[in-house]
Specification:
Elements lengths: L32 H7 L4 H23 L5 H8 L3 H29 L1 H20 L4 H15 L3 H11 L5 H29 L2 H10 L1 H11 L24 H10 L1 H32 L4 H28 L4 H20 L8 H11 L2 H14 L6 H30 L9 H7 L4 H19 L1
Helix pairs in contact: 2-5, 2-6, 2-7, 2-8, 2-10, 4-5, 4-6, 4-17, 5-6, 5-7, 5-9, 5-10, 7-8, 8-13, 8-16, 11-17, 12-13, 12-14, 12-16, 12-17, 12-19, 13-15, 13-16, 14-15, 14-16, 16-17, 17-18
Amino acid sequence: MSVDPARTAPSLSAPAPRRPADAPGPAPAAAGSAASAVLHPPGGRAAWFAWTVGVTVYVLAVVHRTSLGVAGLDAAARFGIGASALSTFSILQVLVYAGMQVPVGLLVDRIGPRRVLLLGVALMSAGQLAFAFSTAFAPALASRAVLGFGDAMTFISVLRVAARWFPAARNPFVAQLTGLVGTGGNLVTTVVLAQALHTAGWSTTFGAIALTGVPVFVAVLALLKEAPPGAPGPVRPPAGAAGRRPPVGQQIRAAWSEPGTRLGMWVHFTTAFPASAFGLLWGLPYLVEGQGMSRAGAGGLLSLLVLSGMAFGLLFGRLVSRSAASRLPIAFTVLGVTALCWTVTLAWPHGHPPLWLLVVLMLVMGSNGPASLIGLDYARAYNPAERMGTASGIANMGGFIGSMITLLGIGVLLDALAEPGSDSYSAHAYQLAFCFQLLPLLLGTAMILRLRRKLDR
């Protein structure tokens, strides 16, 4: 696990000023092999192997998470529900995910990421299998909640594995690479799952996804080593704690009181939710019903969003690894361009923007997910190793809270704007309903500006 050189013991003559964990400067020499393992994680092939095993779980989690995004219209027909009820599936799943981030962070800090990943795979597989054979709204909703519990345990665990295996300077790049590889799961969803639903059917398709968890579970159990040889265990009490774990409440308060944690949460909130809400649920209905596209054409645009995200992940990972000062400029650029593209799209006459504009919108929204990982980098950089999981959990809540608010707001507005007796929504209804997302964009941007000033002070 990487340790902030600035948090090593200062001289007794004068207190050392606090600085973020990724501040430049050489690490002090370590005394002993165990300390060296902590201060200088080895990297190399063993690190990449451990990360590969862990990230396989995250790819599977993204497949589970986004599986409803291409099945929204099928789910509405299967369960006989409207837009508000349909949005409840994703809202509940995201609500569970967001609510579990702090508990999961605490679990990762205390029992280690390997055990948390195993539990996550088991819950995701059970939830998806139940969803595959659900024929009524209530059991299907409960199944998605179980899936959300499992999904919540994956990303933070993979980042913790990476933090223990890779040097601190590599963490931003590895985090972006984790997100990039995870988007491969989204690509599987938009390309493979959308087609499978119409050839193999509902139960077979979702059942096959659930059973994919079996080999992944075995791989994590047999192959994953969560830390290099000689590194200490998952629990590292802070200095002066006499080897005792800090109380849970104290650990959460300490992480939350750090302005870098809160700034990370709001960066994640504001940058993540536009693409997340679009990909999780409303993208396919908007393109098919609102824009009159075929399912194949809509799937192609959603695939473009995923591919764009992979490219931006590589770019942002390189930039942030080279200069921590690039974090907020990247975030503000992504926010400004995303808001501009959506404003032009939604202001287009009669709610039917041209195809080239939709392509540009997909390319721009591809930057949202990679930019949101900057929030997790703030949480990592401004917290000591013993509460890194807790702080990452707090920051990781942000985008999913924003997504939940947006999913609900769009669903409620669509139902309010629907024509009486109609089971579909017009382009004008989508045009007005999607304007809702500009509100959380403004709120999040204001909070980032406020916390940036506080962090500078």
